[in-house]
Amino acid sequence: MGDVVTPGKDDDNACVARADGGEDDDVVVVLYDAAVTDAFRATGSPSASPRRASTAADDEDVMTVDRVKPKYLPEFSMKSYYGVEERGESSPERATKRRRDGKPLELEIDGTAREPTKEIAIGGVYVKFPAKINPHPAQRMTMAKIIDALKKSQHAMIESPTGTGKTLALLCSTLGWLEREKEAYKKSAAKVRDMHEAWSVARKKYEDALIAFGHRNDKDKASTVKAEYGDGWDASRPFTCKTDVPPPPRVYVCSRTHSQIEQILRELKRTGYAPKYTVLSSRQRLCPLKKSDADCQDMLGDGLTQQERITSCAHYNRHEYVADHMNKYAEKNCAWDMEDFNRVVNEFSACSFFALRNLQATSEIVFCPYNYLFDHNVRRKMKLDIAGAAVIIDEGHNIEDVCRSGTSIELSMAQVAEAIAAFNAQSIKSAPGYYADVYQFLLKISHFLERIIGNTGEGQKEVVVRSHEIVGCVIDMLGEHAVELVRNLIKTPDNAKPTHNGPLTTYMNLCEDIANILHLVTKTPESYVIIIGRSVDINGEECEGMCISCMEPKVGFSTVAEQARCVILTSGTLSPMNTFEAELGVEFPIKIEAPHVVPTSQVYVELSDAIGEVTYKATSGVGASRFAQNLGKYLLEYAKVIPGGMLVFFPKYSLIDVTLREWHTSRLFAQISDQKHIVCESRGAAGFVDTLAEFNRGNATGKGSLMLAVFRGKVSEGIDFKDDSARAVFCVGIPFPNVFDVKVKTKRDFNDLPKSRQKGMLTGSAWYSAQAYRAYNQALGRCIRHPKDYAALFLVDARFREGGQYMMNNISKWIRKSVTACGSVNESVRNVDEFFKRTKKMLLEKEIKTESTDADVDETQNPESPVEYKAHRNENIFNAIGCEDNRKLCDAMDALHQAALSCEEPMRVNAIAKATTSIRALTYKVTNGSKLAKPGPGKVQGVGPSIGAQIDYFLEHDKFERMEYYLRGERMPH
Ligand code: SF4
């Protein structure tokens, strides 16, 4: 296989962006799973497991603190879950000393320090929102749709551009709804309690009657009591009331990486809600002693008593104190983030891993990377119960890949050989049944792989077994009792498995993972392809192995979607949404594309083929060096006029190498360095923190930095480069997957099969393009992060201009609206210079005006001209209130405006009345999810000219909530 750039997974299978360069002359190779390469890597370590990769999430554990505080800081947490960072009084060493000295722990929870909030009525739910922010249309639409999906138990897909405050909206609406569910549960539970009391009185009466009348009139008595107490009577058990009030559903809030989960927790502190929650993470990330799963399990094995566990690991002993303490946050109406958690853990010198596990039992919300739910083996090991739960996924644009890799597995022959060697005669003797099954299972796989790979012809790298041959292949691999063998392995209960098995734990887990995937294969063979052969790992070494690859994400997704109450998928880049629906095989009745928070005047987008040679064809050989030279000259000119940082994304690392080499051989590197501090994204996750720190240092000097990075790398996903941190993004080329990679080829072929077409899946080429443009749009969205932000975006590839609208349709809608093109670099640079000067001035003027009229910061203030602003604001109002009836609502609003402005009495009154009736009916429908019973004239009796003035007042003063209440004929609560 060729070089691979993959969004991979961390050790605990958290999905993390990871990148590596390719040497292909063509477009960069882009795949989905770092494991692809790792699994084929012939490792010698017994701890090697399938789908293991060095990832961003891993490396966060060794991040160091940047001592220089930069001027512009991208939003990124450098803190690990455990206290790598020294936290003064909270460090474990000091905490131990304090305990030795008999000093009490100082762990105060300040419930008064929270950000003030206000209540907003959305979709029939009161949502607490930070008081100083007036939610803008994108946030309102997001909240309305989330509440709608939660109430109706329907799956939803919500695209809200990056920087629109999507996470805050997601949390506020979910927690508002959960609060309402909890209230309803409390009321129902109280009712049940009352009924219990009433029925116990009834039972007493009944029993007295039985004693008095000698068991004769029991049926009469029962019906009398029933008539007296009404519903709630349990017919199967007379005089017992029903007690099956379902508790509020558990909510899973997921994101891609642990860093993003940390960001979500920071946002949670702003919401005004204080639910009970936990965070799921791996032992490897959390264990303060850095023990592996196997080592820890050996220390705390099933066979040990509690006392033995305590003496095995002192940290384990104290994890319950931490859990108790974290639960106090909810009691004091506070929320915590990972910094708070680490502080408490350090104070107690406790085990973070078991503390968070302990919190799971009482949690209303579970935060975790979404592969914990969609990876079949991880979900099984974590014992996550998703039945009836609400699953909310932030940054869900990689869900297809996660679902596919979560139901696939890869293993090298070296791994199988190691495992066989580990199960020696001694171990088989110690647990003959289970170990013997595992041993036989591995042996059969090993013989099968040797046979198939041995028979591959000269020059043939892989054997691909397609869906119709899959069952035969599994029988060939495991023998005619394959299904029973697999079933035995996966059905063996935990208590029937041997404990204290040391290094064998790793291999037992490996066997269970393979068996579970093979079980899925035998259930849905049509969705699988098995690839067996020689491959090349990222180190360029050949290794042999097998990949059981799931072709349809729906295998992983539908398991969760069918059990959960609803799955709500949110991201800045979900378009085109129909592709998701087709690939995930689940209908999403609720869909929305929210508008961006910034007006078009704050975004400059240019189709740049001004250098003429920035196409994928020009990035090899002689063309590559000419391309690099041209790009350097091009960037140098822009660097002179662009304030702050610049991000330049390439399809592959090798292209960055060529570019830097060419810049060094000419004077370009020095010339660009005079304008911007050049930083290059490191390969893999290691060293990323240093890279980011260097980028920040360059920005802190005032001249700004220029980052050379790759699509799907750490820079391109999950980090906010707001304000002067990055004022321009240059996307060079288009990151199409490697067309020669066997997995890409197999998936494309699979999608082109008639049966796939019948299922509505994308064609092979449409799927292929969707992979590229999703990564492209992610990169473009890095630098506009809030309503007052502004930036220039450059689509540096001649294919956009050649392909016209067809190509542009792949770009996010909010970017598409602003696209321009220039004839020359000089003209373009002039335009860019003018754009930055004009926008900066406009925002400054707006800020001064806002400050003089309003002391509070209103994040929705819009820095456009009055006319533009009014038009934009009206659009926002419509978006804010409207959902599927948005268009009709806009028309009704227009009619109202017309009526208020131009008609004469009494026509004016009638027109206003008519328009108001429509608005009221539509708003009612949007808010309550049902039609107003009588939207006719009866509902608008008494409407007079004042209503027009009233509406104008609301519009003029941005009092949307009050207008919403007014149009519903209700009073807004204070
Ligand atoms: S109990 Fe906790 S601290 Fe101790 S080895 Fe296990 S994970 Fe590590």
Mean pLDDT across all amino acids? 74
- Major sheet characteristics: 7 strands, parallel
Hetero compounds: iron/sulfur cluster
The end-to-end span amounts to 64 Å
Contiguous uncertain segments of 5+ residues: 1-90, 853-885, 934-945
Descriptive notes:
There is one protein chain. The protein has 974 residues and is of the alpha/beta class. The protein is 50% helix and 11% strand. The protein has 40 helices and 22 strands. The protein has a 7-stranded parallel beta sheet, sandwiched between helices. A 7-stranded parallel beta sheet has the order 18-19-17-20-21-16-22, sandwiched between helices. Helix 36 packs across helix 37. The longest helix is centred in the first third of the chain and has 48 residues, at 166-213. Iron/sulfur cluster (SF4) binds at residues 283, 287-289, 291, 296, 299-300, 313, 315-316, 351, 353-354.
Labels describing this entry:
globular; 50% helix; 974 residues; 40 helices; binds iron/sulfur cluster; disordered N terminus; 7-stranded parallel beta sheet; single chain
